[in-house]
Amino acid sequence: MLSRLKMDRIHVGIVGGTGYGGMELVRLLLEHPAAKLHCLVSRSEAGQRVDDVFPHLRGRIDKRFQAVEDADLTACDVVFFATPNGVAMHQVPALLANNVRIIDLAADFRLRDPDVWAQWYGEPHACPELLSEAAYGLPELNREAIRNARLVANPGCYPTAVILAFLPLLQAGLAGPGSLIADAKSGASGAGRGAAVDNLLTELSENFRAYRVAGHRHLPEIRQAFDGIANCSRELVFVPHVVPMIRGIHATCYAEVSGEVDLQAVYETTYRDEPFVDVLAPGSHPETRSVRGVNLCRIAVHRPPESGRVVVLSVIDNLVKGAAGQAVQNMNLMFGLPETSGLNFSPIAP
Ligand SMILES: NC(=O)C1=CN([C@@H]2O[C@H](COP(=O)(O)OP(=O)(O)OC[C@H]3O[C@@H](n4cnc5c(N)ncnc54)[C@H](OP(=O)(O)O)[C@@H]3O)[C@@H](O)[C@H]2O)C=CC1
Ligand SMILES: CC(=O)N[C@@H](CCC(=O)OP(=O)(O)O)C(=O)O
To answer: One GO molecular-function annotation for this sequence (predicted)?
Structure first.
């Protein structure tokens, strides 16, 4: 059932169509049975054919990028923002006023407190009145709110992997009082397509480094979700790393758990009906490759003997379950479609 549509198919606009998140949205939406790409906005490639800019799409798309002032965004049913942080918040209010629903892949609407947003993103929020309305777009946590939302804040890539890893423990009240620890590694596409010395092949390959240990902007986002799940503030140590691969996040997450609980059963029960979370058999070690190109989080739960800790391994493709795929999953929910529409395909391996 397609609800609340302006036309027969969901007319989609993408702002930031030339970035990694935008490109991945194009790839997914071209195959979506109920969506039609209506306009693709780019400043740098305005006027250019999409398949000239991205030759891998030759024969798949007959459209040109447009400047924002030429794009018919108000005719869209939904507009995805795949732009840097702080861009969407200047354009969203006018689109909402025109009955356009929004899915923002950036962080503009993820944090509820405008002061926290300003602290981590370095500028005052342009429309703080919308922060409490926005639905945090992690379906496994917030499905009903997403269904009814006109504004969805798609989660960050690290938060998706980390929250899904801890969610069953927190919901069941099993994580002890000690700090939760998330030790996460990302492929380089997480940093976007913009030129930066740190992202050169020569800097990344044969190399492995942590960054922003003192505080990454995904920390308040993850903590906000934990507060919502467990209804109490939790200490979290979050250490991101960049590894020499293109796609993928691997989060190794630690929590203190006491008592003889069947954790495998807790995880399997929590995610039993989730189409995009796969709890692996006991003793498994999920690989980023096993989720490459698909909207899936694979999780394995370990309890090393005599450690008093649980180790949860969680892998996603940062561009799919960590960004564009999750955004399409949210679109499906917002428009009353089966949640898996356009998202049923197999991983790419090797
Ligand atoms: N990469 C990832 O794994 C993930 C990214 N995200 C978030 O999604 C968003 C997009 O990320 P990603 O695709 O990697 O980023 P990229 O840097 O690859 O792409 C950004 C896009 O935004 C456009 N853009 C840049 N500046 C502006 C501006 N001031 N106004 C309008 N458009 C602008 C660029 O196109 P042009 O210059 O042609 O206009 C480009 O298409 C970011 O907020 C990111 O944090 C979230 C989860 C995962
Ligand atoms: C490897 C790498 O650099 N990753 C990015 C994460 C990108 C992302 O998801 O950030 P947003 O919250 O802005 O959407 C980073 O750490 O900044």
So the answer is: N-acetyl-gamma-glutamyl-phosphate reductase activity
Whole-angstrom distance, CA of residue 221 vs CA of residue 182: 13
Q: How many residues make up the chain in this entry?
A: 350
Predicted confidence at residue 2, as pLDDT, reads 55
**Other beta carbons within 10 Å of 116:** 16
56-to-40, 44, 324, 344 alpha-carbon distances in Å: 17, 19, 18, 21
Q: What is the ipTM of this complex?
A: 0.98
Domains of the chain (ranges; CATH) run 10-155+322-334 (3.40.50.720), 158-318 (3.30.360.10)
The C-alpha atoms of residue 348 and residue 27 are separated, in whole angstroms, by 14
Predicted TM-score (pTM) above 0.95: yes
Chain-wide mean pLDDT for the chain? 96
- The ligand that comes nearest to the alpha carbon of residue 19 is 1
How many Cα atoms occupy the beta-carbon half-sphere of 301 within 13 Å? 23
By C-alpha distance, which of 278, 275, 277, 292 is closest to 338?
275
Catalytic residue (choose from 76, 127, 157, 297)? 157
In the reported structure, the alpha carbon of residue 177 is separated from the centroid of ligand 2 by a whole-number distance in angstroms of 29
Ligand 1 atom at minimum distance from 16 CA: 41
Mark whether 157 is an active-site residue.
Answer: yes
CB 315 within 8 A of CB 249: yes
